[in-house]
Structures are given as structure tokens and as C-alpha cells.
Design a protein that fits this description.
two-stranded antiparallel ribbon, ten-stranded mixed β-sheet, 17% strand, Isopropylmalate Dehydrogenase
Length: 356
């Protein structure tokens, strides 16, 4: 099976290089038969080709079994008409990667940012192809306009098709976990858009009578994440809400750097760390690669499930276990977690656990 590797910007190349160490170890130990190709996105692509994301890369990515995408410095890109294309959005729209799956969990041996005694183990299922984001809710152009220098307007798009399919993925995941789904919305204010989303979730719920469904206003959900995170199992949300609450959940659990993330369609999957490109520490071997390593493990798990290859699932679980084994030793943590281990050394330590 073939994987396309796209290092990206900032710490992207470093954390991807670190994550490939345990991936190669798993590839060897579990006889996965993985092969890897590399290409450019982000500033390296802009310098070479005049755009941060070439259409050829998207077309090529369709032919791969998996994609590993590094971090991007979107805020520093030039305007889209000057080549500064949003790479993540390009992949989400171009490959229809509508399900952004973002787990967050505490670890008994790591300090969290929650109240003493509180624990978290949840997954946020975020719809990623429409919503409030103006670069992905029009077939041409942007969903924002500025009629005058003193007025800006933004259009939000919510569709039955996208709402129902992300809801179905959430219920399917809940069936593998604790059989509870919480729909996050603001239907008391956005009567039509969030109202449609909530209607779709409730419609899909009829096909999963074993799963308990409740719903929360997005503002209330942030309070419950802080006060009572144990109430959650799988949360399903539109794009903007899912983006915000997933960052909150991951930071509460310990750090944005401790949670993996994938973007998936029904036929493609891309591993992408939850955090940003951290250009201030790029090239210093200080970055925490845990999120990227766990994202790669999630990619393997997805590939194993969708291609009926149990060895991939077994390898994914081995990578996740190896990360926890290394993190449990305070001397083997990266500086952001109070340790002194560099980014590459951490990846090597995880690889060593897998190799045995």
C-alpha cells in the first residue's frame, strides 16, 4: 500500500520525520508492505511552483492509500490569487474529506488542565467541508463579501447531505465505543441552519436505537467540557463549532500536542496533527511529535478498517501503545511536557518500543 507524505511548513517536516520512525518500525514488524512518496505543499511548493497547493498534488493524492500532511502556516501565505492556497481546505474539498475525527483523552501519568480527579475520553466528529468557512461553501468564489469598507458579510452553508453523513459516521463510531452521541449546535439562534443540522442528526439516530442521543448548545458544551467531561463519548458538530471545541478538549486533556487527528472521506484518509506550524521553534528539534505520530496511527487504523487488513489495525494500536510507554517516562518527554528529549529522539524512542 502506498502513502503520500507532504511535510508542509514550520515544524511540519520535523514532526513528520519523527512520526515516520515508528511508522517504519511498525511497517517492518507487522509486514505491512507500505511504500512512501514525498511531494511539496506550503511555502516549499510556493517557492518552486508559485502556489502552496498544486492541482497535480491533489490528483496524485487520489491514487494513494493514505496521506500524511504536515502543518501549514496559512496565516502567513499570500492572498489566494497570488498562490496562497489553503492546503487543508484544498484537501478537504478536493478529496471530499468531510470527517475530521479528533479524539481527546487524559492520561493518568500526565498532568491535565482539568479539575483534580476529572478524566476525559471522547472523540469529536467535525464536519469539514461546509459551514462558516468562506473558502468551502461556494462552488466558485468565496462566501464573504465586503460591500463597503465598513461592512463585511459572510454566508454560512449547511446541507442535509453533509449533515447526515457526518452524523452517520458519529453514530457508527459510538457503536464501537460507549454508545452515546452528543450533537453540538446553536439552534436557538440559528433556527434554519443549526435547526437543519439537528434535524439530520435526529433522523440518522433512528437507525441506531442502541445509541443514546442528546444535544447541547455550543456555549453550554464548553462549560460541560470543563465541569463534567465524563458525560461525553462522541460529539458531532458542524465545522466551526467542531474546530473550537476540539481545541478546548485537547488542551483540557493536557495539550493540543497530545491528540491525533484524521480527515477522511468514504474512500480517502489523511493524517494531520491537531496543532499549528509553530514557526518560532521550527528547525530547533524542540517540537512535540505526539499528535503527528498518533494521527499516523489513526490513518493506519482507518486503512485497516477500510481495506480489511487486520495487520494495519494491530500496527496502529502498537504505535498508540508505544507513545504512552514513552510518555510515561518523564525523562523521555519533549520540552513542552517538562522533558529534555528532542523531536527526533522522541520518535526514535517510540520506534524502539515497537521494535521491541
Amino acid at each position: 500500500m502506498r502513502i503520500l507524505v507532504l511535510p508542509g511548513d514550520g515544524i511540519g517536516p520535523e514532526i513528520i520525520e519523527s512520526s515516520l520512525l515508528p511508522l517504519h518500525a511498525a511497517n517492518s514488524r507487522y509486514h505491512l508492505g507500505l511504500s512512501f512518496d514525498h511531494d511539496d505543499v506550503g511555502f516549499s511548493s510556493l517557492e518552486k511552483y508559485g502556489t502552496t497547493l498544486r492541482d497535480e498534488v491533489l490528483e496524485k493524492a487520489r491514487t494513494y492509500d493514505g496521506i500524511i500532511l504536515g502543518t501549514q502556516s496559512h496565516a502567513d501565505y499570500p492572498a489566494p490569487e497570488k498562490g496562497g492556497r489553503n492546503v487543508s481546505a484544498g484537501f478537504r474539498i478536493g478529496l471530499d474529506l468531510y470527517a475530521n475525527v479528533r479524539p481527546a483523552r487524559t492520561r493518568a501519568f500526565l498532568e491535565s488542565n482539568m479539575k483534580p480527579g476529572k478524566r476525559m475520553d471522547l472523540v469529536i466528529m467535525r464536519e469539514a467541508t461546509e459551514g462558516f468557512y468562506p473558502d468551502r461553501n461556494m462552488s466558485r468564489g468565496w462566501g464573504e463579501v465586503m460591500p463597503s469598507p465598513d461592512m463585511a458579510l459572510s454566508t454560512r452553508k449547511i446541507t442535509r447531505h453533509c449533515s447526515e453523513r457526518i452524523a452517520r459516521r458519529a453514530f457508527e463510531l459510538a457503536m464501537q465505543r460507549n454508545r452515546k452521541v452528543t450533537a453540538i449546535h446553536k439552534a436557538n439562534s440559528f433556527h434554519m441552519t443549526d435547526g437543519l443540522f439537528l434535524e439530520c442528526v435526529r433522523h440518522v439516530a433512528r437507525d441506531f436505537p442502541e445509541v443514546q442521543l442528546d444535544d447541547l448548545l455550543v456555549d453550554a458544551s464548553t462549560a460541560h467540557l470543563v465541569r463534567n467531561p465524563e458525560r461525553f463519548d462522541v460529539l458531532v458538530a458542524t465545522n466551526f463549532y467542531g474546530d473550537i471545541i476540539s481545541d478546548l478538549a485537547s488542551e483540557l486533556s493536557g495539550s493540543l500536542g497530545l491528540a491525533g487527528s484524521i480527515m477522511a472521506s468514504d474512500s480517502h484518509c489523511c493524517a494531520q496533527a491537531q496543532h499549528g506550524s509553530a514557526p518560532d521553534i521550527a528547525g530547533q528539534d524542540k517540537a512535540n511529535p505526539v499528535s503527528m505520530i498518533l494521527s499516523v496511527a489513526m490513518l493506519l487504523h482507518w486503512m485497516g478498517d477500510h481495506h480489511a487488513k487486520p495487520a494495519l489495525v494491530e500496527a496502529a494500536k502498537a504505535m498508540e501503545h508505544a507513545v504512552d510507554v514513552v510518555l510515561e517516562d518523564p525523562s523521555k518527554r519533549t520540552p513542552d511536557l517538562g522533558g529534555n528529549l528532542g523531536c527526533q529522539a522522541f520518535g526514535a524512542a517510540v520506534a524502539a518500543v515497537i521494535t521491541g
